[in-house]
Design a protein that fits this description.
The chain is mainly beta. The protein contains two helices and 17 strands. The protein folds into two domains: about 100 residues, Sandwich (Immunoglobulin-like), CATH 2.60.40.10; about 100 residues, Sandwich (Immunoglobulin-like). The chain has a five-stranded mixed β-sheet, with no helix packed on it. It has a four-stranded antiparallel β-sheet with strand order 1-3-7-5, with no helix packed on it. The chain has a four-stranded antiparallel β-sheet with strand order 10-12-15-14, with no helix packed on it. A hairpin with a 3-residue loop joins strand 8 and strand 9.
Amino acid sequence: MQLPLRGVLGRILGNGHWLLAWSVPLCCGVVAQFTVPTQRSIAASPPLPALAFEQYLIDYGAVIPTEEVRTHFGFVNNSERLVTIDRLDSSCGCLQPQLAAGSQQLDPGERGEFLLRVQTANQSVGPKEYSVTVYYRDPEPQQTTVRFRVTLPDNQVVVRPRAVMIYLTDDSPMLQSAEVVDRRERKLEITRIESHPPELAEVTHVATEDDDEGHRHYRLQVSVPADLPQGNHRGTVWIHTNDPAYQRLRLPLALQKGKLPSPGATAVMPRPRR
């Protein structure tokens, strides 16, 4: 049965007090949720690292054949704190990173740099990526890694092996062979060879030969003395030439006298002195 329109309106208006009683608390709760401030703890952000580099990646691309490739990384102390650089760790012993004078300690706003050198004659041909990690304090211990990319060319001067590693188990002298290979048409000449430290080894140029491809091989002999003290020793052989592009070639030395390493052990090439 249908109710008259007046009856329907009456029921709605009659229940109006119930709708009003239900809606008022709801509205008040919603308003209170957005008006009551929320208590939050705000933690102080740690200070940013002090050392900022001008470039974090240097990409040289392909380079011409040369004795070594050089680049440098500049940096600045962007903080109000003293920065002390503790050490530079490189991904390859061939890099020889060196801090410039006055770059070990930086006052606020001061700039510094380190030089990076790659000996091309000790590296294989093709693209390379190297990295250097800078460890410093500001005064908290910090570290930053920068990268250097370069593509080394073919048809260059090569030193073989890349490093001489010798194990001595007794007091007998030891001989080891090495060579410089010149693949170019215009050949260099070795003018002198020196070992640092000099008492570590004696290196002599014993022969010069050309192979069937026209590459010239300069045969070297590395002689380790019998009275070498026990323990690990490291040094560098410098091979000087008359070629302006390859004036000085580098051959690292890593010598160990004493007990041979256990089978399966990995020989680690010590980092050369900087």
